[in-house]
Amino acid sequence: MAKKKHKPRATFRKNSQTSARENDLTRGYHGDGESDAAAEDAPSHERVSGKGRFTRKRTISGAELVEGESGPQLLPDFDRELCVAGRVLRVQGLVSTVRGDDGRSYACATRQLLKQIAIDARHAVAAGDRVWLRPERSSGIRQESEWHEGIIERVEPRHGALSRTSRNRRHLIAVNLDQLVIVTSAAEPRLKPHLVDRFLITAEKTGLKPLVVINKVDLIDPADLMPLVGVYAQLGYRALLVSAQTGLGVDRLRERLAGRVSALSGQSGVGKSSLLNAVEPGLGLRVGAVSNETQKGKHTTTTAELLPLESDWADGGAVIDTPGIRQFALWDVEPEEVAGFFRDLRPYVSRCRFPDCTHTHEDFCAVKDAVADGWIDSRRYESYVQTHAGDEA
Ligand SMILES: Nc1nc2c(ncn2[C@@H]2O[C@H](COP(=O)(O)OP(=O)(O)OP(=O)(O)O)[C@@H](O)[C@H]2O)c(=O)[nH]1
Ligand SMILES: [Zn+2]
């Protein structure tokens, strides 16, 4: 992660024959190298190579520069009158499924310009995107069905992206997420706090607000969980004890899902589908299909799918429940980064004698002292040591 990022810049010129307005638009790419490839997609007559490896000038007509959460973003002009706003539920190949704010479902292609100006053309559109689409006249059989067709004309600035690295490439799973729901079970399968800690690191790293949900509390005495829940509460992490079976805590879970887009993570069999069915019976997700095969490989091909929660209580909330996120773990966290993602260790790391202290075997380690003095929970510290060593939870 300490990899040095290039900050290539590209200059875009807004060019409209009907308007005298001419804006020079400058954008800083995130510079993951792929941006360069995206820039190559621009028509060559519009591209002027500047000095330096990453400096490029090109002209794109019909785009405006908008200040997004992740810096300035170039958004194409579009005719709002002709378009419908909507939310992308999933992307499969070149087709995005969009739920329009008009209540219709659209199968959409993506306007070429959007791919040209995307930092990474493969991810010009992702599950969770807020888009504007231009409905097309439906053809043939589809005319009779609920399905409509359209072209995505514009993608609004994003926040809360969840991505995964595989073979050194970043795969965007979903965007505009507000919350990472970490589901675990009190028993069957047994509670694995280290796994929860690992998902908490993911939340810290991605900036998604975590919610720890401990399901199947009908199988144990909830009082047994209080010490664990207390440690999380002290760290500012909200934890809910629930049972999909008895309905305990389901109302409180609804409250946390309302008005938010939540990604669900957690190992197989903890009851994610059961919980979603309990909060929203209409979803009708398959339950109990715990696979006996190894989970490996199962999550390599995932199409993230956003499931809108349609009930009144949900207030526009949605959940995303895919194997890719369920198993989502620390694939791209370096050992030296780990301590910074443990809220309880973070205040001590700068006080260690050695600046490169790993807080495992060194003397004069402020983290180990804090554990010995009871300021840091020893179970959390064990989690740190395991994660730092790269062990599976
Ligand atoms: N006792 C008890 N059993 C539960 C509860 N919630 C779910 N289960 C059972 O746990 C098993 C797994 O439930 P699922 O909802 O399929 O679990 P999942 O997390 O979606 O599993 P995957 O789809 O494999 O990731 C099923 O047999 C459920 O009936 C609960 O609150 N209490
Ligand atoms: Zn240390």
From TrEMBL:
<feature type="binding site">
    <location>
        <position position="357"/>
    </location>
    <ligand>
        <name>Zn(2+)</name>
    </ligand>
</feature>
<feature type="compositionally biased region" description="Basic residues">
    <location>
        <begin position="1"/>
        <end position="12"/>
    </location>
</feature>
<feature type="binding site">
    <location>
        <position position="352"/>
    </location>
    <ligand>
        <name>Zn(2+)</name>
    </ligand>
</feature>
<dbReference type="GO" id="GO:0046872">
    <property type="term" value="F:metal ion binding"/>
</dbReference>
<keyword id="KW-0862">Zinc</keyword>
<protein>
    <recommendedName>
        <fullName>Small ribosomal subunit biogenesis GTPase RsgA</fullName>
        <ecNumber>3.6.1.-</ecNumber>
    </recommendedName>
</protein>
<feature type="binding site">
    <location>
        <begin position="266"/>
        <end position="274"/>
    </location>
    <ligand>
        <name>GTP</name>
    </ligand>
</feature>
<dbReference type="InterPro" id="IPR030378">
    <property type="entry name" value="G_CP_dom"/>
</dbReference>
<keyword id="KW-0342">GTP-binding</keyword>
<dbReference type="GO" id="GO:0019843">
    <property type="term" value="F:rRNA binding"/>
</dbReference>
<comment type="function">
    <text>One of several proteins that assist in the late maturation steps of the functional core of the 30S ribosomal subunit. Helps release RbfA from mature subunits. May play a role in the assembly of ribosomal proteins into the subunit. Circularly permuted GTPase that catalyzes slow GTP hydrolysis, GTPase activity is stimulated by the 30S ribosomal subunit.</text>
</comment>
<keyword id="KW-0694">RNA-binding</keyword>
<dbReference type="InterPro" id="IPR027417">
    <property type="entry name" value="P-loop_NTPase"/>
</dbReference>
<dbReference type="Pfam" id="PF03193">
    <property type="entry name" value="RsgA_GTPase"/>
</dbReference>
<dbReference type="InterPro" id="IPR010914">
    <property type="entry name" value="RsgA_GTPase_dom"/>
</dbReference>
<feature type="region of interest" description="Disordered">
    <location>
        <begin position="1"/>
        <end position="55"/>
    </location>
</feature>
<dbReference type="GO" id="GO:0005737">
    <property type="term" value="C:cytoplasm"/>
</dbReference>
<feature type="binding site">
    <location>
        <position position="365"/>
    </location>
    <ligand>
        <name>Zn(2+)</name>
    </ligand>
</feature>
<keyword id="KW-0690">Ribosome biogenesis</keyword>
<feature type="compositionally biased region" description="Basic and acidic residues">
    <location>
        <begin position="21"/>
        <end position="33"/>
    </location>
</feature>
<comment type="subunit">
    <text>Monomer. Associates with 30S ribosomal subunit, binds 16S rRNA.</text>
</comment>
<feature type="domain" description="EngC GTPase">
    <location>
        <begin position="175"/>
        <end position="326"/>
    </location>
</feature>
<dbReference type="InterPro" id="IPR004881">
    <property type="entry name" value="Ribosome_biogen_GTPase_RsgA"/>
</dbReference>
<keyword id="KW-0963">Cytoplasm</keyword>
<keyword id="KW-0479">Metal-binding</keyword>
<dbReference type="GO" id="GO:0042274">
    <property type="term" value="P:ribosomal small subunit biogenesis"/>
</dbReference>
<keyword id="KW-0699">rRNA-binding</keyword>
<dbReference type="GO" id="GO:0003924">
    <property type="term" value="F:GTPase activity"/>
</dbReference>
<feature type="domain" description="CP-type G">
    <location>
        <begin position="165"/>
        <end position="328"/>
    </location>
</feature>
<dbReference type="GO" id="GO:0005525">
    <property type="term" value="F:GTP binding"/>
</dbReference>
<keyword id="KW-0547">Nucleotide-binding</keyword>
<keyword id="KW-0378">Hydrolase</keyword>
<feature type="binding site">
    <location>
        <begin position="215"/>
        <end position="218"/>
    </location>
    <ligand>
        <name>GTP</name>
    </ligand>
</feature>
<comment type="similarity">
    <text>Belongs to the TRAFAC class YlqF/YawG GTPase family. RsgA subfamily.</text>
</comment>
<feature type="binding site">
    <location>
        <position position="359"/>
    </location>
    <ligand>
        <name>Zn(2+)</name>
    </ligand>
</feature>
